[in-house]
Amino acid sequence: VLQKWVNREISNFDYLIQLNTMAGRTYNDLAQYPVFPWILRDYTSEELDLNNPAVFRDLSKPIGVVNEKNAKTVKEKYENFEDPLGIIDKFHYGTHYSNAAGVMHYLIRVEPFTTLHIQLQSGRFDCADRQFHSIPATWQALMDNPNDVKELIPEFFYFPEFLENQNGFNLGQLQISKEVVNDVVLPKWAHSPEDFIYKHRKALESEYVSAHLHEWIDLIFGYKQRGPAAVEALNVFYYCTYEGAVDLDALTDEKERKALEGMINNFGQTPCQL
């Protein structure tokens, strides 16, 4: 697959899907859903110029530190963390770039994810301000908050319907602007959900991304996923998220095992290292 990709016989999208599959990710498990990168950083221009490198996100950095000013906070958190019991290793992020709640967050307007979201929120929709209501606002929140590290899901590159409230769900209104949450607010350069998907996919297959995608792959699936390279790249997550970090079979206490399983399922899981 690598060779095919290098020879440009398969697209960036196909390559990412194949890597996800090999690393144990699947559409059938919300806790291990395929993970895709944020690839753009320009969500405000009237036109999207894919020939300008400045419109793309820096793929060599984890999303939590794409904004340089978050790097200091993240570093300090890692350096100052001490677990008195010695069980929990140091980490940069207490949240994860891919988990079940995040998938439901993005897909809230489409079933069965709507129902799953409502179940997760004890029988109602989460408050409107916390919902996925605008792509530019979601990006801005990522830039402002080093604890928000959600990457994307594959749907952002082929499925315009998830951006529309076709079922007419009552998703509430934003507290400050009183704006009703309905269809997802798109970047200025996108004239419709279809147009957004078309341009976003074009961006994914662009020359710039083709030349830099391997840097992101190193972080998520490759050598910068753990060990000294991960520490250096500010890419260390909570210990439970890594494959093989916890031997569930060795836990004799049923309650403890259930608690850990729940944590792993809800918290997010780092893909198998390829």
Describe the model.
The protein contains 10 helices and no strands. With 274 residues, the protein is mostly helical. The protein is 36% helix and 0% strand. Helix 4 (100-106) packs across helix 5. It has a single domain, classed as Neurobeachin, Chain: A, domain 1 (Orthogonal Bundle), CATH 1.10.1540.10.
Distance between the termini: 12 Å
Q: Could you list the spans in which at least 5 consecutive residues all have pLDDT below 50?
A: none
The largest sheet, given as strand count, sense and whether it forms a barrel, is: none
- Strand proportion: under 5%
Output the structural class: mainly alpha
> Mean pLDDT, rounded to whole units?
94
CATH class: Mainly Alpha
Which bin fits the share of residues in helices? 25-40%
CATH architecture: Orthogonal Bundle
Number of domains: 1
What is the H-and-E element order? HHHHHHHHHH
If you compute it from the alpha carbons, what radius of gyration comes out, rounded to the nearest whole angstrom?
Answer: 19 Å
Oligomeric form: single chain
Query: If helices are DSSP runs of H or I spanning 4 or more residues, what is the number of helices?
Result: 10
Stated plainly, the CATH topology is called Neurobeachin, Chain: A, domain 1
**Fourth-level CATH superfamily:** BEACH domain
Structural shape: globular
How many strand elements?
0
GO molecular function, one term: protein kinase binding
Pfam families: Beach
Protein name: NBEL1 protein
Keywords: Repeat, WD repeat
